Amino acid sequence: MAQQTLLQPLQKNVPRKGNDMPKRHVHSFKYQDEQGRYFLGSFLPPVIPLDPTDKFYVLEAGDIARPDLLSYKMYQTPNLYWVILWINKIIDPFEGMYPGMLLRIPTVTRLSEYGIQG
After folding, report:
1. More confident residue, 12 or 22
2. Cβ neighbours of residue 107 closer than 8 Å, sequence gap 6 or more
């Protein structure tokens, strides 16, 4: 069997031995794709369902490709940019954000219910 690196997916039913797994990855989340391959990840983003308290924001030209500034505008911290991208299924802020786009912005209170803090 060829040497496996952490960049290659872990194959289903071929577990890595505890001593083969670097200690920094022992408590990492493991994801499985449709082909049954496992991947290491840093965390599993929460699913935050639609709620009447959610705000909606129409992107302006100055917001494009700057989710950090949008996060600051909405949450007074740039650290929650990933929440805005995740909730609105934006993979690439350079290609996936455009003027007039409607974004759902959960409130800080809702985020804290899911353990998300800025």
Report:
1. 22
2. 53, 54, 55
The mean pLDDT value of the chain amounts to 80
* E strands, the chain, in order: 29-32, 38-41, 55-58, 102-105
Please count the residues of the chain: 118
Distance CA 41, CA 52 (A): 31
Q: Given this model, what pLDDT does residue 42 score?
A: 65
Q: What's the CA gap between 40 and 112, in Å, rounded?
A: 25
- Domain 55-113, what fold? Membrane-bound Lytic Murein Transglycosylase D; Chain A (3.10.350)
Residue ranges of the domains in the chain?
Answer: 1-44, 55-113
For residue 110, give the H/E element and its range. helix 108-113
Q: What is the pTM of this model?
A: 0.66
What CA–CA distance (Å, rounded) separates 80 from 111? Answer: 10
